[in-house]
Structures are given as structure tokens and as C-alpha cells.
Amino acid sequence: MNLIFFASVAALSIAIAVSIRRSKKDQAAIEQDFWARERAANNTRRKSLDDLDYIHIPIEQFPMSLLGDVPKVDDYKQIITALHELPIVNFTGISNTELKLRYGAPNIDLLTQYDQNYTLLVRTLQQWAQALYDAGHIEEACQMLEFSVSTGTDISGTYRLLCQIYQEQHTPEKISGLYPIVEVLNSAMQKSIVRILQEADRSAG
Fold it and tell me: What are phi and psi of 55, to 5 degrees?
């Protein structure tokens, strides 16, 4: 019995050791590939940015006259007005290495700023839409949320509030129209947002 026990322990120890060595080897290969790509990215020359999917803010459609006496809403308006004049691109889920490979290392600072502009845009739209909704301006909130969704935002609160509005407006069928957008999101939040839509569908049914 002892021989069988010790043989089992030895076999298990060998299996664990082999697994650890394989894991270390795989990790080393991953790191080697990463640094090879990073070196290639850093040597990539500047490329044209004309083909970027720039986001244009339809500021003329936004409710600039509503909630003028609310300081935080005034801040949102100022932010959106400033962003309206700036280049905005959604690079969610795309690494700096990939951006440098696509558009050249010299462009990385510009591309980072474009992406930061996008992040600020969708966060501000979410906050502004929530303020509008809380104040009873449902249609205007819905319009801003739908624009944000059209840009590929991965802010879960945007989808949650939009689904809530669709239910309150007795148009739950519009929720199904969000699935094609969410299913192609290049974001770690994609599965979580799909669950939000599914929960909204179940509660509507």
C-alpha cells in the first residue's frame, strides 16, 4: 500500500513539475512574441491618419437649452462643446503596440489623445443623459444615449439606462436592435453588456 501511495505521489509530483515547465515555456514564448511586436511597432514609420473612423458630434441636436441652471450640466455642455472641435476616435480594446503597427510609432501620442477624447465624450454623454433622465427629459436623454451607443461605447450604464427608457416608452422591441452593436464590441465589458440586454428582455417579456 505504501509503495502504491508513494508511486502516486511521485507521479503527481512529476506531472506538476512538467506542467510548471510547460507553463513557464509558454509564458516565455508569449513574452518573446510581445517584445518582438513591440520592437517592430517602435520601428514603424508614420502613416496617414486620414482613414481613421473619426466621430463627429451632432452638437446641434443636443439639448443645450435644458437644465441651464444646473452647474454640473453646464460643465457637461462645455466639455461637449470643446470636444466638438477635436479629433475623436474610439480605440477601445486596441493596444498601443497595435496602434503603432497600424499607424506608425510617431503617431502614438496623437492617437492616444484621440482615444482619450473619446473616453471623455462617452463618459460625459452618460452623465448628461442621466441628469436629463432624472429631470424628466426622457426623449432628450434617449437621443444622447443612442448616439453614444452608435459610437461603440462600452459603458454599461449607458445600455442599462437606454433599456430602461425603452421599457418605460413601451418600445421594448428596440432592445433587440442593440444586440448587433454589442456583439461586435472590442471590449472586456462586452459579455457584461450582453447580460444587461438579456435581463432587460426578460423583464420586458
Answer: -100, 125
Q: How far is CA 182 from CA 96, 104, 171, 174, 191, in A?
A: 23, 29, 19, 13, 9
* 172, three cell numbers: 421594448
Rounded CA-CA distance 20/205 in Å is: 49
Buried b / exposed e along 177-203 (16+ C-beta atoms within 10 A): ebeebbeebebebbeebbebbeebbee
pLDDT at 1 > cutoff 60: no
CB neighbours (10 Å) of residue 48? 9
Nearest to 49 by CA among 111, 96, 128: 111
What was the pLDDT predicted at 90? 97
Task: Using alpha carbons, select from 171, 183, 67 the residue that is nearest to residue 127.
Answer: 67
- In the predicted model, is pLDDT for residue 6 greater than 80? no
Rounded Cα–Cα distance for residues 205 and 197 (Å): 12
Instruction: Give the orientation angle of helix 96-103 with respect to helix 2-42, to 10 degrees.
Output: 40
3-state secondary structure of 151: coil
Q: Is the dihedral of CA 17, 19, 25, 31 positive or negative?
A: negative
At 112, phi and psi to the nearest 5? -60, -40
pLDDT tens sequence across 64-102: 999 988 999 999 999 999 999 999 999 999 999 999 999
